Request: fold
Amino acid sequence: MYEKEEQKLTDFKDRLEQVPLPLEAADGAILQGLERAKREKLQTRAKRKRTLWSLAAAALLILTLATTIRVSPAFANAVASIPGMEKFVELIQNDKGLQAVFENEYYQPIGESQTVGNATLTVDGVILDESGMNIFYTIESAVEMDDIVIEAPVLENEQEVPPASISYNHPITQEDSPKIYSDILEFTFQDPVKFKDLNFTLGLQVKLDGNKFDFSVPFTIPENVKPSIVYEMKEEVEVKGQKFTVEEVTVHPLRVGIRLSFDPDNTKKILQFEDIRLEDENGEVWSSIANGVSARGDIEDGEIIYFIQSNYFENPKELYLRINKMQAVDVEDSYFLVDTDKNVLVHSPKDGRLELIDSSRTGFQMNLKMKTDQELHYGIDRKISDANGEPMDTQHTGISTPHDGVQSIDFGFTDNGYTNPVRVDLFAYPNYINGDVKIELKK
Amino acid sequence: MDDIEVARKAIKGDEEAFVTLMQIHKEALLQTALAFLKNEHDALEALQETTYRAFKKIGSLKEPAYAKTWLIRITINYCQDQLKKDKRYVRDGKSADSAVLDDLTQLELQEALSTLTAGEQQLIYMKYFQDVKIKDIAALEKIPEGTVKSRLHKTLRTLRSHFEGKGEMDHV
Reply:
């Protein structure tokens, strides 16, 4: 019927088959593609948690999941008494503060849902305090979901909901195609807030197998928040000649916020606090948030709030704030410069551990030499800008887990005509100073 | 070890088998990329990209027997995206340099093909360039064979009307 057309196609095919193929170069292309994929697999392992930031100057730490799992009998009982709670246990068991929330019945079951097409979104329950709201939700589908993408969670109230950092898991469903998916949306409010009216609406855009679902679930929280406890501190401390002030400590049920400010005359820039914790008289410790938003603010602005797991429901006789290890570099080492036209590393920390592998107008790759058994669990970049101070149009940045003594770092941006060299201000760097700060929190 | 065995091992995450799999099919993949992108350099890029995407997604390939078709589909998808993105390629299939397929007899057909939708192009390519059986296309796309056949007919009809339209124009 379509012989003429088929003949033309066959002719074209024959013509194609006469074209010599670059078979030798092909093996190189295959290996390059494989290397790229392997490198990226390493990176995604290091960055499982995806966090959306609505705050421009927000800082995020990515910490690996705690490997030990301790579940107290009280927590196990509390969870067993709430129907449908089993599926969330894995998500809360590495946060002592969240466990205590359940033991003290501060979690509020909701059970409101909405069905769109063949999918249903249920708000199972929430934990609300002045610092944020954790929403436990479930998506159920009549058919297996091969691909789940959570987009743009929005929380609405009669009152304005303050800008929030939102943290949630990126579903990993390549291996299995579930019909039920449960996770927690963690809203961390920019400023503490108390809502008068407890009617909320959760808007959630979800892509299931490429189809868009627009959910909007109204729900009412039965009880208002327990008040947060504020410790005014204003205590200046010094570590290796670097001064900073513990301004205040606020204990919320969901988290403890520690507000720090820094002396502008410091010769070193403190990049990260690796060990900041609360400790009671028996040596029991509440440490950093293991999975979620662990800090807010920008050390550059002179002030930052660190979040640690909450001891709100405990009643210790004595409570101390303790700070030991931190990442710090000399001020002049707190950034590096890459000229992507000349393919050179123009400036970098003097320890020489950063090495430029390759660069082009659309990105560069670097190696960071690591000492044995060391690993940097953070992205390295805080800000990327061009020679005129204009922010780069960044497409992606990533850091791999260590291999052969290095961690690979990858930056990608669009070539919008920026001016070289590109400047990257460090967010983290494996150079440490140790102190022993111990301050009592007095009521 | 036959091709299917290689594919099965690759799906299970055997890296060496994966490289072998890519090497077995590299000719078909390069040919595919050349048919769309028309030059060697871009075809090699496409092969690299296909390797990259395939390695990341190999777990989603359910049936080892369809490995080749699956890979070709990845290549075509990449090429079609590139063509959409990259203004260097004009519709008659000539690229800025080192074109390997720009002889005039093929231009008319290539132009006709470029008017098809991405899905139709894939179908034509699978059927006439890689000789994939309708049964296999149906299995891979998870649609009935009848649907594949009717799509094929519709596509050939589109091609014909394109040629005939051309013909008439020539007479005017």
Confidence is low (pLDDT under 50) at residues 87-99, 167-172 of chain B. Chain B is about 75% helix and 0% strand. Helices of chain B lie at 3-11, 15-37, 40-57, 67-85, 104-114, 118-129, 134-141, 145-171.
